[in-house]
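step=encode ok
step=design start
structure_in=
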């Protein structure tokens, strides 16, 4: 997600207390370039007037609707902070939540919904089809729930809790019937506070309850690459999160260039860390996806990656002939690459280069499974 401010993100602490290495320099090209066998095209949907800075993104379960959050440069501390030192007078107060019908050519806008605050996280509830968004990643966080058919929206927050000293970045649904909602708690004042929260019950106008899932400084983390325990890791800039095919939370942490994998508390090595490297140097990522749909649960070796290039105000569509099962992709935001992740070695390989600032990403699977009833028939 787009990070305008982060109170603890400036720590840049790597595992073991070593300073994080400098990112690989890159010369941003006029147009992104796909590495064979990948290809890239520009999403042809035209955003509504005033909608800019596309960030997080989600696909409906049937694959016909693409939902995009446009941050518009809104105040990341919430509308109440406009006119303060956090957000100068004149900073936009609202974001746009836009639904595109991607069955039409070009894709057409079906709904354009105003969301107060800076829209940062966006997921579709797999059970209800409601669109959930988080606003204000640096302070005074809010949640909005939008009915996908009517566009009717309910806003909750700003939330007050001793567990929240910053804002909300991303969300993900998990558990039986996707009843569990996990939230990235970003820009916390220090690492004694949690970086992943769970919503207890439903959001309320008052007294919404949250519980801590992952602290900012876990007591023990298992490094997948070195195959060793670590006791000094600091999750200083938590960002996007997703669910992997095994049902584990996967969190991007931008302060130590790593993915954190969170299992159930009784599992072997309940918190894992995968430090990521590009050309031998640590690389920061923002948004990670596996090649299946979070909304429908459908796996496929064919489909499209939709990627928002936030500062360029462009959405791209990336594809290739065959996506191997359980491939993992991330946006290497500071070097302008979309990368393929190896979660055993931590090495990432560019598949598209030359973007300005890739942030949101979602995989849309296509149906390819063989149907015995149609074998040999035309």
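sequence_out=
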């Amino acid at each position: 997600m787009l990070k305008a401010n982060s109170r603890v993100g400036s720590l840049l602490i790597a595992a073991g207390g070593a300073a994080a290495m400098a990112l690989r320099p890159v010369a941003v090209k006029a147009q992104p370039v796909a590495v064979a066998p990948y290809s890239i095209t520009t999403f042809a949907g035209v955003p509504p007037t005033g909608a800019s800075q596309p960030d997080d993104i989600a696909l409906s379960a049937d694959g016909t609707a693409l939902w995009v959050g446009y941050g518009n440069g809104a105040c990341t501390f919430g509308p109440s902070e406009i006119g303060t030192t956090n957000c100068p007078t004149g900073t936009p107060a609202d974001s746009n939540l836009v639904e595109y019908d991607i069955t039409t050519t070009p894709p057409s806008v079906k709904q354009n919904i105003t969301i107060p605050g800076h829209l940062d996280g966006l997921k579709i509830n797999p059970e209800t089809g409601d669109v959930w968004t988080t606003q204000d990643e640096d302070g005074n966080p809010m949640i909005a729930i939008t009915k996908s058919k009517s566009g009717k929206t309910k806003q909750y927050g700003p939330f007050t809790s001793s567990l929240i000293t910053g804002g909300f970045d991303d969300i993900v649904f998990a558990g039986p019937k996707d009843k569990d909602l996990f939230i990235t708690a970003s820009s916390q004042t220090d690492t004694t506070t949690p970086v992943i929260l769970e919503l207890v019950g439903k959001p309320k106008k008052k007294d919404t309850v949250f519980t801590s899932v992952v602290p900012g400084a876990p007591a023990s983390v298992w490094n997948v690459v070195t195959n060793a325990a670590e006791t000094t890791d600091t999750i200083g800039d938590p960002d996007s999160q997703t669910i992997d095919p095994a049902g584990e939370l996967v969190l991007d942490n931008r302060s130590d260039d790593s993915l954190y994998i969170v299992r159930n508390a009784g599992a072997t090595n309940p918190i894992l860390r995968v430090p990521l490297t590009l050309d031998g140097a640590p690389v920061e990522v923002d948004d990670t996806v596996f090649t299946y749909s979070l909304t429908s649960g459908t796996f496929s070796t064919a489909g499209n990656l939709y990627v928002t290039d936030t500062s360029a105000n462009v959405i791209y569509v990336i594809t290739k002939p065959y996506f191997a099962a359980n491939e993992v992709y991330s946006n290497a935001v500071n070097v302008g690459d979309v990368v393929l992740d190896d979660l055993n070695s931590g090495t990432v390989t560019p598949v598209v280069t030359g973007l300005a600032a890739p942030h949101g990403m979602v995989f849309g699977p296509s149906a390819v499974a063989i149907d015995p009833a149609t074998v040999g028939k035309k």
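step=design ok
step=annotate ok -> Residues 2-29 have pLDDT under 50 and may be disordered.
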